[in-house]
Specification:
The chain has about 90 residues and is an alpha+beta fold. It contains 3 helices and 2 strands, in the order H-E-H-E-H.
Length: about 90
């Protein structure tokens, strides 16, 4: 199923523990010249937003569910550290 809309608003409608796979390609943060990739003032603001999204991923994922999250080379390490606070990172 593909759901279109603000991810935090849409995930709030999903039952906890009901999703087997989250495959996501969030904004990379200041890699593209588009407004959707420049909506945050700094790295910390972007990571705080992504952490709130990750909290929802954690809530909706089934106990044996998987998360695949793409990140830019510039932010990849910081995103991985943030995700490792919530998930077991098996590969990058």
């Amino acid at each position: 199923m593909i759901i279109y809309g603000d991810c935090l608003e849409q995930m709030a409608k999903i039952e906890s523990g009901s999703v087997n796979l989250v495959l996501t390609d969030p904004p990379y943060f200041r890699v593209k010249g588009e407004s959707w990739d420049r909506a945050w003032d700094d790295d910390d603001s972007f990571l705080a937003w992504l952490a709130s999204v990750a909290d929802e991923w954690q809530r909706i994922l089934a106990p044996n569910g998987s998360l695949y999250c793409f990140a830019s080379p510039q932010m990849g390490s910081r995103v991985e550290v943030m995700l490792a606070e919530r998930f077991t990172v098996l590969n990058h």
